[in-house]
Automatic annotation (TrEMBL):
E.C. no: 3.6.4.12
UniProt cross-references to SUPFAM superfamilies, sorted A to Z: N-terminal domain of DnaB helicase
Keyword Chaperone: no
Originating species: Bacillus mobilis
Matches recorded under InterPro entries: DNA_heli_DnaB-like_N_sf (IPR036185), DNA_helicase_N/primase_C (IPR016136)
Protein name stated in the entry: Replicative DNA helicase
Annotated GO biological process: DNA replication
């Protein structure tokens, strides 16, 4: 247990700054999917429970749910990059 072999394996398994873009994309992608699931739940609620006087009002609300996902993509990317840069500076 331990020794040079262990240290070599450890060094190979620790994420480096070279992988930052990959991890940013991975975090963003998973977050967007979670937001998509949440939007789908909201759309289902709007479809089953919420009462709308006009179909156009309903469609506008559904579109708004979908547009929220796209707008979150930009804020997620910025916050993820900010978090990674803070981690990089810290270490």
């Amino acid at each position: 247990m331990g020794g040079v072999t262990y240290l070599t394996q450890l060094a190979g398994s620790v994420p480096t700054t070279a992988n930052t873009i990959y991890y940013c994309d991975l975090v963003k992608s998973k977050a967007l999917r979670r937001r998509g699931i949440e939007a789908a739940k909201n759309i289902r609620y709007l479809s089953e429970v919420q009462e709308f006087e006009y179909d156009e009002t309903f469609l506008t609300e559904v579109e708004n749910q979908a547009l929220k996902i796209r707008s979150m993509a930009f804020s997620l990317l910025a916050s993820t990059l900010g978090s990674f840069s803070k981690m990089y500076i810290k270490y």
